[in-house]
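Progress against Task 2.4 (sequence-to-structure conversion) is shown through the following example record, which the project officer requested during the mid-term review.
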Amino acid sequence: MSAEVLEKLKAGVRKFRTEVYPAQSATYIHAGNTQQKPGALIIACADSRIDVEMITQSGPGDIFVTRNIGNLVPAYGEMLGGVSAVVEYAVSALGVQHIVVCGHSDCGAMKGLLSPEAVSKMPTVENWLKNAHTALSVAEALTAKDERPSDLLHRLTEQNVLLQMQHLRTHPSVAGAMARETLTISGWVYDIASGGVRICEENGRVFTPVEVERVTA
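Structure tokens generated for the chain above:
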């Protein structure tokens, strides 16, 4: 079975080289010979159903992307590592003008927070999810007794995005750029089934749908 998975990946590479690349070769050649200057950093979940380039219709060089379990951003100094390095590099070296924290529906990380036993045999994941525990406390405090489990998951997903936005502001590079007014941040929740995106802009608490213009005949 593992060989079949690899062969499928190879088939994808062949299709890219023979069908996709030729039609966009000028774009790729330009990207390969020009220093990258992405306008935004998107911090998304590692969930295989999330494709931020597709969602935002971005091409090579448009966005800087990092993905991890639960789209988490450890507060500065808590877990200095890959995510912190990406944030610092994106802001200080690449000069991105906007950072997005992108959560999504049916998130396994959020389900793991709600059901700790599901990740009890994965100590690394369990420890990583500590970066979202405050969001769980807030979501539970705001949940009415008669609400469905899906409502709690929905609220937790939003609260987690808001928390990670707070964590972002603790990073020196982010705080400095925001003080200079050269950087803004926003939180997104992407609904996998509908393709819809709701956005909470800087200093807000409410997620508002990105409206689609209706084409009339």
